[in-house]
Amino acid sequence: MRTMLDHLNIKLPVWNAGMGGGMAGPALVAAVCEAGGLGVLGAGSAPGHLVSAWLEQTRALTSRPFGANIILPMSDGSDIEACFNARVPVLVLFWGDAQPYVKDAHKRDMFVVAQCGGPEDAVAAADAGVDAVIMQGVEAGGHVKAVAPLAETLRATVKVLGPVPVIAAGGIADGAAIADVLAAGAQAASLGTRFVASVEADAFQDYKQRIVKAIADDTVMTTLFDIGWPNANHRVIRNTTYERWEAAGKPASGERPGEKQDIGELALGEHRVLLQRYCVIPPLSGFDGDLESMPLYAGHSVDGIHDIAPAADIIARLHDELRRAVN
Ligand SMILES: Cc1cc2nc3c(=O)[nH]c(=O)nc-3n(C[C@H](O)[C@H](O)[C@H](O)COP(=O)(O)O)c2cc1C
């Protein structure tokens, strides 16, 4: 049977999650592709001209197929337009209705994927015409649409989706966990946090270190970091912002400790963006400020992350562990 990996011409069942603001930027995407996986650009929340530049840089670094991720509630349309213009081979949409984009993407021979939070969500995406779904479990880092553990939601989704390929995401950091999701019917795994702690991720170095040091119990699901994307669950490492808010009795947005306080800035090209406490933007490499106040997105996968390594080494290790787990 021709699998999704055959169709996309990808050797290994490993994708990096397209982590927004370019955290999964051209260098990480190309490294993952060159190592045999599917690299996915984190285009979320970036303007179209920047996405176009990232796509060009990615194409200059690899001739392999790759993807780009769009966060629909944060999109002004220009990021999707950039992906259409560049005919990105794989378009990954998150947190919204994929239907308005499917036809135009298919006209350009693009493979459309929706990251979903549960079986019902996945069925709606399949009905809208997507080519595959990423099923997310509640263990995931970053923004989390899921409400159930991955093992549970994955099995239910594979069962109801039939032939539509499923990619699993959430809490995966080693090849044995990839073997588990493949055994449950997934055709690939999408890893976020593992790739934040890669040399190529465009994340602030001390944030990568925080991921290496953290354990799953240090992470928490919250809607706290809501400036820029309100009322959306996300999993982060507990930090001073979280603890001060908790100690204050978890007040509502607008009444929390240190609202409107600047906690750092971010260099984005020639621009500098001031960051307020409770802002959704993570510490990218150009961050300068108080790291412990920032949203430190991370999944339960931190338990299996013990180093910051080049993406090629991470993939080689995952592949080796996967081979051993299935033999
Ligand atoms: C730092 C970070 C940023 C993320 N940004 C995005 C994003 O822009 N778009 C998206 O669809 N998912 C995003 N996610 C969620 C991932 O797609 C995926 O569900 C999650 O990383 C899987 O869990 P894991 O981190 O344990 O591997 C992000 C995750 C992390 C850790």
Q: Shape, please?
A: globular
Amino-to-carboxy terminus distance: 21 Å
Q: State the strand order across the main sheet.
A: 1-9-8-6-5-4-3-2
Average the pLDDT over all residues and give the rounded result. Answer: 97
Main beta sheet: 8 strands, parallel
Strand elements, count: 14
SSE string: HEHEHEHEHEHEEHEHEHHEEHEEEH
Strand pairing plus helix content: what structural class?
alpha/beta
The CATH H-level superfamily of the largest domain is Aldolase class I
With helices defined by DSSP (H or I, 4 residues minimum), what is the helix count?
12
Oligomeric state as shown: single chain
CATH architecture of the largest domain: Alpha-Beta Barrel
CATH topology of the largest domain: TIM Barrel
- The CATH class of the largest domain turns out to be Alpha Beta
Ligand inventory: flavin mononucleotide
Alpha carbon gyration radius: 18 Å
Number of domains: 2
Low-confidence stretches: none
Tell me roughly what share of residues is in helical segments.
Answer: 25-40%
- Strand coverage percent: 15-25%
